[in-house]
Amino acid sequence: MTDSHAAGAARAPAAIEAATMRKVGLRLVPFLILCYFIAYVDRVNAGFAALTMNKDIGLSQAMFGIGGGLFFVAYVLFEVPSNLAMERVGARIWIARIMITWGLVGIAMAFVVGPYSFYAARFLLGAAEAGFFPGVILYLTYWFPKAYRARVVATFMVAIPLSSFLGSPLSAALLELEGVAGLHGWQWLFVMESIPAVLLGLGALLLLPSRPAEARWLAPAEREWLEGALAAERAAPGAQAGHMPLWKVLASKQVWALALIYSGSSATSNALSLWQPQILKSFGLSNLETGLLNMIPFGIASVFMILWGLRADRSGERVWNTALPLALTSLCLALTNLTNSLTLVMVLLSLVLIGNYAIKGPFWALATEWLSPATAAAGIAAINTLSHLGTGGATSLLGVIKDRTGSFPLALTPLVCLTAAGVVTVLILGRRGRTPPAVQRPATMNAV
């Protein structure tokens, strides 16, 4: 073989890898981002609806917080079973089922008439949406080798801040439909923002193959490379054989530690998405002004989320890339107690969300590397589920503390505590060497 032929043979695997990952990224990630965008809009649009709905149906801040917390009670109860069901019936069918169900429940939210119907609707919405996020994280492990996951997860999860960045002005505009066809503006908000979930659920049946073997849009050589790369990772030393029983996953200290690390970020994401419109409205803003200002911190966070995910993949380091943003979140949440200035509050909330969303990619890359392939389905769902115990509690407490003290900054104290506990936990685990070694960089950093 000549030198030129040898060089060409050496470049061939890298070229196949780049082409394969580019195709997979372009085919799957944009659609999944759109699905999660709608999921998060439907989860948190009650925050904007509350600007007028609470008065219309007689909800206090504490009642609204309880309803927000009940979403996560249902989420916790149904999330792990949902993820295990996806393993059995396939990602395409199960993700579609989740989306169609939550879309229908979201439409039903328009017809709540008081506290108890609001509680029931939020509980049912949590049950319907349970399993979607960990299901997608698990689904991504079927398609992306470890070296790509931080940036892919970060790109996928940019739908969270984007849902508030784009959803805020949309929700504020829908509130202006007050009285059209005899409906309140908040009723139009729930109906119009839930219909896309049903349509995307139907689209998932057509667009999402369950495994690489079903991807007709990959060339045979590309399918062979991808399946081989993923199989090699599953067979690598340290990947446990067999399936760990669910009770063992839930009893794992490792799973609980990861859940604690993530609970502060999860609680902050959900609590601020739900409550931030009311925090800003308390400065005397109109609904439209609230919508426009609410989008700013989330827009900035969207950019930093992707940049930090790219940085984490380039360095291959996970612990500090998780701990530093989470520490920024905790510090800036605490500092909101020191100011009554709308401008300073906006700056602090922007820094909170920059830190909070920056950890998403590195954390889930760390979690999927830490868990064996045999335990990934239950483990990912368990981490997300257990972290939502803190999310539900913090969301409910925020309303109670606000009713008791009249202060939104004081109401954010549970978030300060959870994020600080997460920082300490990830640093302790890193110091003990419980995390995986740095991930080898892929052949091309621009494939996805």
From TrEMBL:
Pfam families: MFS_1 (PF07690). The chain crosses the membrane at residues 24-41, 61-81, 93-113, 119-140, 152-174, 186-208, 295-312, 342-359, 371-390, 410-430. It is found in: Membrane. Its main location: membrane. Residues 28-434 form the Major facilitator superfamily (MFS) profile domain. Gene3D superfamilies: MFS general substrate transporter like domains. SUPFAM superfamilies: MFS general substrate transporter (SSF103473). Keywords: Membrane, Transmembrane, Transmembrane helix, Transport. GO terms for cellular component: membrane. The keyword Transmembrane applies. It is a multi-pass membrane protein. One of its GO terms (molecular function) is transmembrane transporter activity. This is Tartrate transporter. It comes from Methylobacterium dankookense.
